[in-house]
Design brief:
Length: 117
C-alpha cells in the first residue's frame, strides 16, 4: 500500500500566541489522531517539530563546497512546518480524506505527497 507524507504548516506568530490550554488541546487532538492511525496500522511516522527559530539550514554552494550553515529556517515565511505524519493509504483520494481529518489548529494547512522511495 502506498505511503503518503502529510506536512502540517501553520502561521508561527498565531501558534505562538495560543494559550497553554489551547496548545495542549491541539497536542491532545494530534495524539488522539496518531493513536487512531497507529491502531489502524497506517502510521509509519509522526512528529511535531520544534519552533522554526531553532532550525539550522545546511546548503551547498553551486560548486558543491563548502557547505553554508546558517541558523534558522531557509526561508522567512509566516507559515512553517510544525509537524508531519507518514501514513499508509490505498490511494491519493484516501490520503486527501485523511488529511481532512488531521486536527485543526489556528492556521493549519496540510500538504500531501506520495512517498516514492
Amino acid at each position: 500500500m502506498p505511503r503518503y507524507l502529510f506536512l502540517g504548516y501553520a502561521d508561527t506568530a498565531t501558534e505562538r500566541a495560543m494559550t497553554p490550554a489551547e496548545l495542549d488541546a491541539v497536542i491532545d487532538a494530534h495524539s488522539a489522531f496518531a493513536a487512531e492511525m497507529r491502531a489502524e496500522g497506517r502510521l509509519h511516522a509522526g512528529a511535531g517539530l520544534a519552533d522554526p527559530k531553532t532550525a539550522t539550514t545546511v546548503r551547498r554552494t553551486p560548486a558543491g563546497t563548502p557547505d553554508v550553515v546558517t541558523d534558522g529556517p531557509f526561508t522567512e515565511l509566516a507559515e512553517q512546518i510544525g509537524g508531519l505524519y507518514i501514513l499508509e493509504c490505498a490511494d491519493r483520494e484516501e490520503a486527501l480524506a485523511l488529511a481532512r481529518r488531521i486536527p485543526y489548529s489556528a492556521t493549519l494547512t496540510v500538504e500531501v505527497r506520495e512517498v516514492v522511495a
